[in-house]
Amino acid sequence: MKHLPDTLQDTDAGPLDALARDWLDGALDPDSPEAALARQALESDSGLAARIESDRAAEQRLAAALDAYARPQESGRAPALIARAARRAEAADRWVRRTGAAAAAILVFAGGWMAGSLPASDPGQPPSELVMLGGQAADATAFQAGLANEPVMAPPELTGHGLQLTASITRAAPDGALNALEYAGPQGETVRILVRRTGPAPSETLHQASMDGDPLVWWREGDHVIGVTGPLRRDALTAIAEDVRLQARGAPVVADFSPAPELGVQVVSDPG
Amino acid sequence: MNAKDLSRIIARHLTAMRRFARALTGNAFDADDLVQIAAETAIRKRRQLRQPDRARSWLMTIVYRAHLDLRRQAARREAPLNDPESAPVQRTASNQDARLACAEALDALDALPAEQRAALTLVAVEGHSTGEAARILGVKEATLRSQISRARSALREAVDAEPVRPPVRVVR
């Protein structure tokens, strides 16, 4: 038995065969230790090359057999298969959103009942950090400074809710900027995601509130407070907020400032 | 990435997904279902595809995970997915010659344990590196190499690996 590196000794004969295959395929650097091992293996085992050739022939037959199954459908039925998959995925998404919203409503109701209050039907006050959207504007200098350094949230994809991203807006606030991502709904309604840096705070569950006459669902996420508001039913807004929260957790909450021109999104400098 | 873009990506890799699905399931009917489910899952989870240049590995991983789910469901129903009685093998080779030439190899593949089928197909048929295949299957590379080695041995024993020759035609 020839000497093998430790990494190769702890498995069966596979590594040597694999090395020899790689060598015969020309995939090994001729000066590498692996190439030396492969050459040594082929020299010392006269049947190895024949075995590898035999394996290749079997695998070519196998590939041909699988191709014979896979290819005939490719041209004819592939578009139908993919279209059906897309339709079913969309239907499943809708179902998840509906059951998610229903479950959220039940949880809020049950939580409220157990705590002796009903937060879902008794919207509280919005967090002060988000109220600044409708508040007083800072002077232009402060706004520009805030705009230059303030990160924005990577825009969540909400097409599943019928929402298309239309604008990324930064508004001035006395102690920094507040970012708003605007989405247009199917009826022309505007849904806004408001993001404001607040400093470290534990992540929270969703809170219900109202802002400018519309429902607001908000929560704290890392260094930010995030709110979703628009002229929608509270359960629909909650479902959107859940989705935003999931996406924000799947990716960094904030990203480098980028207006996403490929989406036609413009940065609107609107100091108020 | 929107659903339309991902649909285009799936279309590009559909043949590979179908080959892998056929290798995993052992029959055409279950392979069709598996690809349908995997395509659906991919479209739903499209936001998770951060690197489009790795779409093929990503889709193969989804096919494999969907297959494991289906096997678990089948086990719960006590109706094995690969039961040849309940799901007869359907060979759809384009012609009789190809069918005869390939049947042996396909039978040999179907006789392998599921993990070996998956490993061998990804590396030997689909051309993934052992590292990529190990990531797709969620195993260590050494384990994958070992599975491939065993699969090749079994395939070698089962198949007469002489090159495929066309049958002799008598011309009068």
User: What is the H-and-E element order of chain A?
Assistant: HHHHHHHEEEEEEEHEE
Provide the β-strand percentage band of chain B. Answer: under 5%
User: Regions of chain B with pLDDT < 50 over 5+ consecutive residues?
Assistant: 78-94, 161-172
Portion of residues within helices of chain A: 40-55%
- Specify which chain pair forms the largest interface: A-B, 47 and 57 residues
C-alpha geometry of chain A: elongated
Q: Total number of helical segments of chain A?
A: 8
The average pLDDT score of chain A comes to 65
First-to-last CA distance of chain A: 80 Å
CATH class bucket of the largest domain in chain A = Alpha Beta
Architecture (CATH level 2) name of the largest domain in chain A: 2-Layer Sandwich
CATH fold name of the largest domain in chain B: Rna Polymerase Sigma Factor, Chain: A
CATH fold-type name of the largest domain in chain A? Phosphorylase Kinase, domain 1
Number of E-type strands of chain A: 9
Query: Tally the helices of chain B: what do you get?
Result: 7
Terminal-residue CA separation of chain B: 61 Å
Low-pLDDT runs of 5+ residues of chain A are 1-13, 102-123, 132-151, 252-272
Work out the oligomeric state of the chains in this entry.
heterodimer
Organism (chain A): Alkalicaulis satelles
Protein name (chain A): Anti-sigma factor
Domain RNA polymerase sigma factor 70 region 4 type (chain B): 105-155
Domain PhyR sigma2 (chain B): 10-62
